[in-house]
Design a protein that fits this description.
Layout (H helix, E strand, L loop, with lengths): L3 E5 L2 E2 L6 H16 L7 E4 L1 H9 L8 H16 L2 E2 L5 E2 L1 E7 L10 E4 L5 H9 L2 H18 L5 H15 L9 H19 L7 H15 L3 H9 L8 E7 L10 E6 L11 E6 L3 H6 L5 E2 L2 H7 L6 H4 L1 H18 L3 E8 L2 E9 L4 H13 L5 H6 L7 H4 L2 E2 L7 E4 L1 E4 L2 E7 L2 H9 L4 E5 L7 H6 L2 E4 L7 H9 L3 E3 L5 E3 L4 E4 L2 E4 L3 E5 L4 E4 L4 E2 L5 H13 L3 E5 L3 H9 L5 E5 L7 H12 L3 H26 L4 E4 L13 H11 L3 H10 L12 H6 L1 H22 L5 E5 L5 H22 L6 E6 L2 H5 L1 H7 L2 E4 L1 H9 L6 H10 L13 H18 L4 E4 L7 H10 L3 E4 L4 H12 L1
Parallel strand pairs: 4-5, 17-18, 18-19, 19-20, 27-28, 27-34, 28-29, 29-30, 30-31, 31-32, 32-33, 33-34
Antiparallel strand pairs: 1-2, 1-3, 3-8, 6-7, 6-8, 9-10, 9-12, 10-11, 12-13, 14-26, 15-25, 16-20, 17-24, 21-22, 22-23, 24-25
The structure holds phosphoenolpyruvate (PEP) and magnesium ion (MG).
The site of phosphoenolpyruvate has 10 residues, from strand 28 and helix 31.
């Protein structure tokens, strides 16, 4: 087996596409070499050696030593040097390099091969004894730390003691002899720590470093990083051994990092920093202030330190050529590391550069316009989830944060305001122009007015699909939910967080992107939508197959949805339309009446309000499809709770408060999520469905007239489990339609369909499709009922599950493809087997999640529907799924 791949002198055994075998760094070093770029010769030990190492009790394959020796020999030939030979000194660097970049997994070891003898040779070779002894002490420090596990601070202490003794401020003040002293002290310390002298044999040093890289793959830091970024342990890391070049050989040497375009704005201009007479880690360490690469950047920054362009014009010119070549070759913005040794440029690394969302958009659009990439590639280069950053204000990343708790990142964006504990207070303060954060144990539909009025919402209970989370996302308001460590005391008007007490009126900030709760005000960055954003969106629309609709019920939401490019409403949750003072009373009268006649009277009050709502929605959506769902939630959500509310309803209904209380108790349910809700309500109280159907059809007729465009309402029945439930409710709807059309003399097309949100519905979808003209997958309830996990109580234990690695993803956020997804697939197939071309969509929260959208494409759904602020994310994800 080939375990070692060499590169150097314009040739390489590997290439960029060998990333899995050689790791990112190794593969790109090989590629740069083959492109004829100046790369110090070296070799890569493959990731397969890492795998072997761990499956064979941390030992190496038998052929490895010989292959490494041969590669060292080859490297020496190219460099005209010999590893371990003081007469033809060859020093090397040893670096890790996994498939995916894993910053900080293992530090680099530089200057390897130095010992008491070769340090003299380096002094002679370079003609600079100070440089040689400085390099040796750096090596002992790095090797001691990374390979011998000696605490970094132990070396730093010795160094600062020496500085104190000599009265120096900076490392650069040390003379050669003084560095020699430091080396002696370091070596003494190492011996004391490890009970043997610092290794002098270069080969022992090399194998020590190789072993340290492979061992670092299983250190806790690396394991945590892998878990957070879904990187499998089986991938392993490669090891790169490369001839040293020195950026610290005096004033004609330098080292630096660069991006081929500006990583924060995306502007097409070389961007980077360098230090004269320095070694790689000095740039990162931040002890000396680095200088700009270009004159232009120097002028812009107002720095008086000269740019690389000025101090080393020739090396700079070569570097610009190399950077251009690499960007054109990889067809992406590159992040580069380089060293200039006595005027000669060497490339040490290239990789795709990390960038802000704004930069990502600009770079993708520019590169497509430059003809470097296609529109499809441009669209695929943007991380859909990152668009959230553009649509909401975010916390200034540089601002200090006083974190007092964390909850679930339920709805993105950041908000600051005074704490209020009741929705009415939020509304009241808003009318005086005061910004608030509504803090609740949990929210219910009754709190909606306060949620609207507040800048952000914080709850101590509930998960990612809790009422607060769903409604806040719909409104585009920041929300942190399920912050279980917080204690809210409504009576006392206090919130206890991390031992601190916050009172009503105190200022807090919440960050719905991270789930953080912070004391006081934190500076924000305002969202900015650039022209590049719309261009990428246009391109995405050309590519995608699935339509994107929005979940919306208020005119404001519907307008926002259209602004973001929604192609209809996929879910109008009508229950959300009943919560304002005027309507809730009529609603309560309706629920609490025990006679049909009385119920009908209350419903008659609600009819005109519902009709007006729907007319407005239809008008805003101007001919686009609108799916309206019949009343879904358990009735108890609407019941009066306080004494005051009970009296108010009793009075309106002309019954006694006691009688009303009795009725309220009758309606109590132990498990409302599985109780009398959804289509069960329509079957128990057909008058409700009648009223809603009438409101829908009368509104459709009216809106068709006012807009001059046909309106095709899609009436949706929730929580169907048995086909006959749908048959029953559909008949009510069809009968009302006939009546309305007869009364108005108008013509109207409409569809009646159902949510698929119970396993039984999915499994019998062929029978259900006999009645249903469309299916909309309600994956919130489908996840709840498939897993048997309560969507409102799951937050805390699912978080524990994630931490303990029992599950990787919260299934309420990203669709569980194996279980819930299997049901969706079965239902889609069965539905189509009965009714070819049946319209299929998804309206659970997953409709706005990129991974879930990609699954929807594989099942061939016709559309996804998500909250208005996620519409751009869904458009982009749908395009990527179609690529
Ligand atoms: C669902 O269950 O996925 C759904 C969209 O309905 P709701 O969240 O209103 O129950
Ligand atoms: Mg549901």
């Amino acid at each position: 087996t080939k375990w070692v791949y060499s590169f150097g002198d314009g040739r390489a055994e590997g290439r960029a596409s060998d990333r899995n075998l050689l790791g990112g760094k190794g593969a790109n070093l090989a590629e740069m070499c083959s492109l004829g770029l100046p790369v110090p010769p070296g070799f890569t030990i493959t990731t397969e050696v890492c795998t072997y190492y761990y499956s064979n009790e941390r030992s190496y394959p038998a052929e490895l030593t010989a292959q490494v020796e041969a590669a060292l020999e080859e490297m020496g030939k190219i460099a005209d040097r010999k590893f371990g030979d003081p007469a033809k000194l060859l020093l090397v660097s040893v670096r890790s390099g996994a498939r995916a970049s894993m910053p900080g997994m293992m530090d680099t070891v530089l200057n390897l091969g130095l010992n008491d003898e070769t340090v003299e040779a380096l002094a002679k070779d370079s003609g600079d004894a100070r440089f040689a002894w400085d390099s040796y002490r750096r090596f002992i420090q790095m090797y001691g730390n990374v390979v011998l596990n000696i605490d970094h601070d132990i070396f730093e202490e010795i160094l600062s003691d020496e500085k104190g003794r000599l009265g120096y401020e900076l490392d650069t003040e040390f003379t050669a002899d003084e560095w020699r002293e430091v080396v002696a002290l370091y070596k003494e310390k190492v011996e004391a720590e490890i009970d043997r002298p610092f290794p002098q044999d270069p080969r022992e040093q090399l194998w020590g470093a190789i072993g340290a890289v492979f061992s670092s793959w299983m250190n806790p830091r690396a394991m945590t990083y892998r878990r957070l970024h879904d990187i499998p342990a089986s991938w392993g890391t490669a090891v790169n051994v490369q001839a040293m070049v020195f950026g610290n050989m005096g004033e004609t040497s330098a080292t630096g990092v660069a991006f081929t375009r500006n990583p924060s704005t995306g502007e097409k201009a070389l961007y980077g920093e360098f230090l004269v007479n320095a070694q790689g880690e000095d740039v990162v360490a931040g002890i000396r202030t680095p200088q700009s690469l270009t004159e232009r950047a120097r002028l812009e920054s107002g720095s008086d330190k000269p740019s690389l362009e000025k101090v080393m014009p020739e090396a700079f010119a070569t570097f610009v050529q190399v950077a251009d070549k690499l960007e054109a070759h990889y067809r992406d913005m590159q992040d580069l590391e380089f060293t200039i040794e006595r005027g000669k440029l060497w490339m040490l690394q290239t990789r795709s550069g990390k960038r802000t969302t704004r930069a990502a958009l600009k770079i993708a659009v520019d590169m497509a316009n430059e003809g470097l990439i296609t529109h499809e590639e441009a669209v695929c280069r943007i991380d859909p989830a990152s668009l959230d950053q553009l649509l909401h204000p975010t916390l200034d990343p540089d601002a200090p944060r006083d974190i007092v708790g964390t909850g679930l990142p339920a709805s993105p964006g950041a908000a600051t305001g005074q704490i209020v504990f009741s929705p009415d207070e939020a509304e009241e303060l808003k009318s005086h122009g005061v910004k608030t954060i509504l803090v609740r144990v949990e929210t219910s539909p009754e709190d909606i007015h306060g949620m609207h009025a507040a800048e952000g919402i914080l709850t101590t209970r509930g998960g990612m699909t809790s009422h607060a989370a769903v409604v806040a996302r719909g409104m585009g308001k920041p929300c942190v939910s399920g912050a279980g460590a917080l204690r809210v005391d409504y009576k006392a008007g206090t919130m206890l967080a991390l031992g601190r007490t916050f009172k009503k009126g105190d200022i807090i900030t919440i960050d719905g992107a991270s789930g953080q709760i912070l004391a006081g005000r934190v500076p924000m960055r305002e969202p900015s939508l650039s022209g590049d954003f719309s261009i990428i969106m246009e391109w995405a629309d050309e590519i995608r197959r699935m339509k994107v609709r929005a979940n919306a019920e208020t005119p404001l939401d519907a307008r926002t949805a259209r602004k973001f490019g929604a192609e209809g409403i996929g879910l109008c949750r009508t229950e959300h339309m009943f919560f304002n003072d005027e309507r809730i009373l009529a609603m309560r009268e309706m629920i609490l009446s025990d006679k049909e006649e009385q119920r009908r009277m209350a419903l008659a009050k609600l009819l005109p309000m519902q009709r007006a709502d729907f007319i407005e929605l239809f008008e805003i959506m101007a001919g686009l499809p609108v799916t309206i769902r019949l009343l879904d939630p358990p009735l108890h959500e609407f019941l009066p709770k306080t004494e005051e509310e009970i009296n108010e309803v009793a009075q309106a209904m002309g019954v006694s408060a006691d009688k009303l209380k009795e009725r309220t108790e009758e309606l109590h349910e132990f498990n409302p999520m599985l109780g009398n809700r959804g289509c069960r309500l329509a079957i128990s109280y057909p008058e409700i469905a009648e009223m809603q159907a009438r409101a829908i059809f009368e509104a459709a007729v009216a809106a068709a007239k006012s807009t001059g465009q046909p309106v095709i309402p899609e009436v949706m029945v929730p929580l169907v489990g048995v086909a006959s439930e749908l048959t029953y409710v559909k008949k009510i709807i069809d009968d009302v339609a006939k009546e309305v059309l007869a009364e108005s003399g108008a013509e109207l097309d409409y569809l009646v369909g159902t949510m698929i949100e119970l396993p039984r519905a999915a499994l019998t979808a062929d029978t259900i499709a006999k009645e249903a003209e469309f299916f909309s997958f309600g994956t919130n309830d489908l996840t709840q009922t498939t897993f048997g996990i309560s969507r409102d109580d799951a937050g805390p234990f699912l978080e524990t599950y994630r931490k303990k690695g029992v599950i990787e993803q919260d299934p309420f956020i990203s669709l569980d493809v194996d279980g819930v997804g299997a049901l969706v697939k079965i239902a889609a197939e069965k539905g189509r087997s009965t009714r070819e071309g049946i319209k299929l969509g998804i309206c659970g929260e997953h409709g706005g999640d990129p991974a879930s959208i990609s699954f929807c494409e594989t099942v061939g759904l016709d559309y996804v529907s998500c909250s208005p602020f996620r519409v751009p994310i869904a458009r982009l994800s749908a395009a990527q799924a179609a690529c």
